[in-house]
């Protein structure tokens, strides 16, 4: 493949150049990107064609490969290392509790903090220490689009800033709450790295104890969120929108709890991703009146 080498930060600009071969995809390795070049334009390298990868599925978080599902074989790990050259390979057996602690096994390399680039933002985390749900990519994009500048938003389960960063970037004033002190440390770093200090108030602790005042929007990005819904309602008003994440349908329960709190709730539901057999991660958008 005929390519030009650019820094990862310059990739977006390179994708708009006249010389770009739009029939091919760029190849990214570490901090460098190799961008395909059309015939008739100068190149820096002619890379050998890569054979399609047909091995075990995995996710890249920064330079770390994360494997879900059944524990991989040594041959599957070796194939991933040969194909993608990750600095580390982790097996994620599951996520535990309200603090969302990952149960991981190191299969290759050494775990370390990485910078994961997504939607123009930088998220620092160590995948062996804290969770990063790549299946929620479209939901993170959506939270950045629905925000009206100046909204007061409660992010009750902020994690490392999955939703806080795009919402604050869109102009919201975000109260970001996170109970896990390790995740909270990365949340603070990601607020700083994305230059959002003036738009986010981060606090470490139980969100039920930290909520204060009334919010225009509440994000509840945790599978245990239905059990915290009453706390969110106590800090809502007519017009507040609550984004309630759940495993399975919690719409009827949300409507009943809103009624008990003196509201009428209009609920719309969308599926985010399949979590297991007949089980979906859903988001209920609850508009209070």
UniProtKB/TrEMBL annotation:
Query: Sorted alphabetically, which keywords does the UniProt record give?
Result: Methyltransferase, S-adenosyl-L-methionine, Transferase, tRNA processing
Can you name this protein? SAM-dependent methyltransferase
**Which is one GO molecular function term here?**
tRNA methyltransferase activity
According to the UniProt record, one GO cellular component term is:
cytoplasm
Query: What highest taxon heads this organism's lineage?
Result: Archaea
Residues in SAM-dependent methyltransferase TRM5/TYW2-type domain copies = 58-289
Q: Which SUPFAM superfamilies match?
A: S-adenosyl-L-methionine-dependent methyltransferases (SSF53335)
Q: Which InterPro entries does the UniProt record give?
A: MeTrfase_TRM5/TYW2, SAM-dependent_MTases_sf, TRM5-TYW2-like_MTfase
Q: Which GO terms describe its biological process?
A: tRNA methylation
The reply on keyword Transferase is yes
């Amino acid at each position: 493949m005929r390519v030009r080498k650019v820094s990862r930060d310059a990739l977006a600009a390179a994708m708009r150049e006249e010389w770009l071969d739009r029939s091919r995809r760029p190849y990214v390795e570490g901090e460098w990107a190799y961008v395909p070049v059309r015939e008739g334009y100068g190149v820096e390298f002619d890379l050998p064609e890569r054979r399609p990868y047909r091995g075990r599925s995995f996710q890249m978080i920064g330079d770390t490969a994360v494997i879900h599902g059944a524990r991989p074989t040594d041959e599957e790990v070796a194939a991933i290392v040969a194909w993608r050259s990750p600095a580390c390979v982790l097996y994620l057996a599951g996520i535990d509790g309200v603090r969302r602690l990952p149960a991981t096994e190191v299969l290759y390399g050494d775990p370390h903090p990485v910078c994961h680039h997504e939607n123009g933002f930088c998220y620092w985390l160590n995948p062996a220490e804290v969770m990063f749900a790549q299946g929620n990519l479209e939901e993170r994009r959506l939270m950045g689009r629905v925000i009206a500048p100046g909204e007061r938003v409660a992010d009750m389960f902020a994690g490392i800033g999955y939703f806080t960063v795009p919402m604050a970037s869109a102009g919201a004033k975000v109260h970001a709450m996170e109970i896990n002190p390790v995740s909270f440390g990365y949340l603070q770093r990601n607020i700083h790295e994305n230059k959002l200090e003036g738009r986010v108030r981060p606090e470490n602790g139980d969100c039920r104890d930290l909520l204060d005042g009334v919010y225009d929007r509440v994000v509840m990005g945790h599978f245990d969120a239905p059990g915290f819904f009453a706390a969110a309602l106590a800090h809502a008003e007519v017009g507040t929108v609550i984004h309630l994440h759940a495993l399975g349908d919690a719409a009827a329960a949300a409507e009943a709890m809103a009624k008990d709190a003196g509201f009428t709730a209009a609920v719309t539901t969308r599926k985010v991703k399949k979590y297991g057999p007949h089980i979906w991660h859903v988001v209920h958008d609850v508009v209070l009146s």
